[in-house]
Write a structure and sequence with these properties.
The chain is of the alpha+beta class. It has three domains: about 1-20 and about 200-240 and about 250-330, no CATH class; about 25-190, no CATH class; about 345-425, no CATH class. About 50% of the residues lie in helices and about 10% in strands. It contains 16 helices and nine strands. The strands form three sheets. The chain has a four-stranded antiparallel sheet. It has a three-stranded antiparallel sheet with strand order 1-2-3. Strands 4-5 form a two-stranded antiparallel sheet. Helix 3 (about 45-60) runs parallel beside helix 7 and helix 12 (about 275-285) crosses helix 13. The chain is globular, with a radius of gyration of 27 Å. The N and C termini lie far apart (about 60 Å).
Length: about 425
């Protein structure tokens, strides 16, 4: 089955009431040598475990902090922390109120008390952050890795199980717990939250794809392609996009159709276990971009096919769509500027990627940048510049500076060189 046919089936599948959740009986862990036996055991049957723990948590009608206060062992550690802070504040009050105490002593006492107040506030803040994970009503996504599942299972264990003194560590800046996937202590506020199925994205993408033939007349294929591309870019830019790759949509699953060593697939995808794909998607920026761009090309191609089925039922099709089908191969990449498939052999460096309107990894090492456009259909979009959306570690960046096309900044960051017209400093 071709990638294009896979995408077409994906969005023609019935979702909503027809959406089915296949029971996962075990987590596939081949190739994940760093996963300890304890984590693997914890992650087994994670779907059922999370469902059971969520129900148990709801019945408790308790917040994470209340669960700590109700557990005798955890309560003792929590009370010890509060008593320690209370003693610090009392001593600070005494120091600041002594007879004939100087201004500096009073100032020092005020600072000590304020620091204690900040610590106590951070402890409560951390417990409240965990409530967001525990109270989420969404469907746990198959896009979560075995590591993510182990982390999530640990949070529900803390909320519903028997606690120990070692479960929570009260530090200067907040409450820390051990994150199973790394074995390291992590502040609760920074604990990795699980991904939930991107139902809104599935619905909106499916709605546009299924209506593209009726929404546009037979002369508006380019306009339809433009809207499909905008929708695809919007989905890729969402933090939950990974759900569209790995979650079941009706009886269809994009990852199942395109990985698992399917014959005829891109060699990069062949013989890759789904769990390996999830982990590599998170850690390898180039691989993630390839998966995203392949999905985008499939999505647009599926929309074009839907368009042709409605307007050209006899199969004569449209010249533009025919050309796209001829151009699209595993050795090409879709350009947002030319709206054609460009041979990969012609994309030799960052400048070529910018010229084609593709995302690019900056040569100065600052991270990955994505094109920014102005203009809406039916007016042709114009590439105005690039913005960083991931830092060099792969973490998301928000509200970063726009590097305008032709600007000195774009040359210095993306190309790591001085433009010929720049004034020497």
């Amino acid at each position: 089955m071709s990638l294009q046919e896979s995408a077409r089936r994906l969005y023609k599948a019935q979702y909503g009431d027809a959406m089915q959740e296949s029971a996962k009986t075990k987590i596939i862990t081949q190739g994940l040598d760093t996963v300890s036996k304890g984590i693997i055991e914890m992650a087994k049957n994670i779907d059922k475990k999370l469902q059971d723990d969520q129900k148990k948590f709801k019945k408790q009608e308790k917040t994470m902090l209340q669960a700590v206060k109700d557990d005798p062992v955890a309560r003792e550690a929590f009370t010890d922390m509060l008593d320690r802070e209370k003693n610090i504040q009392n001593e600070a009050s005494k120091m600041g109120s002594r007879f004939l105490v100087g201004k500096e002593k009073k100032k020092q006492a005020a600072i000590i008390k304020a620091e204690s107040d900040t610590r106590i506030k951070s402890y409560y803040e951390d417990f409240n952050m965990i409530n967001k994970i525990l109270s989420n009503q969404g469907t746990y996504s198959k896009a979560n890795t075995v590591f993510d599942s182990a982390n999530t299972a640990n949070i529900f264990r803390l909320a519903t199980g028997k606690l120990t003194k070692e479960d929570f560590e009260y530090r200067e800046d907040g409450v820390y717990v051990t994150q199973p996937s790394t074995g390291e202590k992590v502040r609760l506020k920074d604990y990795k939250t699980p991904m939930y199925r991107f139902d809104v994205g599935i619905e909106s993408s499916g709605a546009l794809l299924s209506s593209v033939g009726k929404k546009y007349n037979d002369k508006q294929l380019k306009l339809a392609q433009n809207d499909l591309e905008i929708q695809a870019n919007t989905m890729i830019g969402n933090d939950n996009f990974k759900s569209l790759i790995f979650d079941d949509i009706g009886l269809f699953n994009y990852a199942d159709e395109n990985f698992k060593g399917k014959k005829g697939k891109d060699p990069l995808y062949m013989a890759m276990d789904i769990e390996d794909v999830k982990v590599r998607y998170d850690k390898d920026l180039d691989f993630r971009e390839k998966v995203q761009q392949d999905w985008k090309a499939d999505y647009i191609a599926a929309g074009v096919e839907n368009f042709n089925e409605v307007h050209f039922p006899e199969g004569e099709g449209d010249e533009v769509s025919k050309k796209l089908k001829e151009e699209k191969t595993k050795d090409t990449v879709y350009s947002s500027i030319t709206r054609t498939y460009i041979p990969k052999k012609d994309i030799k460096n960052v400048k070529d990627r910018v010229a084609a309107g593709l995302s690019a990894t900056a040569l100065d090492g600052s991270g990955v940048y994505e094109p920014v456009y102005e203009g809406k259909p039916p007016r042709k979009k114009q590439l105005v510049g690039y913005k960083r959306f991931k830092d060099k570690s792969g973490d998301p960046i928000e509200d970063d500076k726009l590097l305008k096309i032709g600007s000195d900044d774009l040359f210095r960051v993306l190309y790591a060189e001085e433009p010929s017209w720049s004034t020497p400093k």
